[in-house]
Design brief:
Layout: E1 2-6, H1 13-24, E2 27-30, H2 31-39, H3 43-50, H4 52-69, E3 73-76, H5 87-94, E4 98-102, H6 105-114, H7 127-145, E5 150-153, H8 159-170
Parallel strand pairs: 1-3, 1-4, 2-3, 4-5
The structure holds shikimate-3-phosphate (S3P).
């Protein structure tokens, strides 16, 4: 059994994946953490020393590697993963259920303001610029996310509520 969680930065992919994995006896795999381990560098360091294009190439390679080699796991992707290198088609063709955790702009801004430092794309943005950036970026990315097999609105919901909704749609 495999499940893929995707969505914009700050939508809760890793938190929900970790919870679901624990409560269903599955392995939790976070694509960013997997890349960091394989490359022996943090995401921030990969962006600053090797550039975003290198990151996107590695991200696509490691996504395929996990899809092909890992089982019984819940995989949380990076926010950009579905939007580059034909990755969304790879995900859909794998037939692994994909779930979009759909958060609105206020939810994302609220969360990302507090935890932007580890995310190279937004680390240096002021609060005002962050709102504008998320608005535009989400608009560009939503068409990829919306191709997921299932979509769950996460605004104002607890981890437990979201996990239950995911379990319901998958059964
Ligand atoms: C990115 C999201 C990050 C990470 C990288 C790029 C993006 O993952 O992959 O900083 O393009 O949205 P999270 O969504 O887990 O923050």
């Amino acid at each position: 059994m495999k499940i893929i969680l995707l969505g914009y930065m700050g939508c809760g992919k890793s938190t929900i994946a970790r919870y679901l994995a624990k409560s269903n006896g599955l392995t939790f795999i976070d694509l960013d953490k997997y890349i960091e381990k394989k490359e022996a560098l943090s995401i921030k360091e990969i962006f600053s020393t090797k550039g975003e294009i290198y990151f996107r190439l590695q991200e696509s390679i490691y996504l395929k590697e996990i899809i092909e080699t890992k089982d019984n796991c819940i995989l949380s992707l990076g926010g950009g993963t579905p939007c580059y290198a034909n990755n969304m088609n790879t995900i859909l063709e794998s037939k692994i259920p994909s779930i979009y955790l759909r958060a609105n702009i206020p939810t994302l801004v609220n969360r990302l303001e507090k935890e932007k430092s580890t995310r190279p794309l937004i680390a240096d943005l002021t609060e005002e610029k962050l709102i504008e950036y998320i608005g535009k970026h989400l608009f560009e990315r939503a068409p990829f996310y919306e191709q997921s097999n299932f979509k769950i609105n996460v605004n104002g919901k607890s981890v437990l509520e979201i996990a239950r909704e995911i379990e319901t749609v998958l059964h």
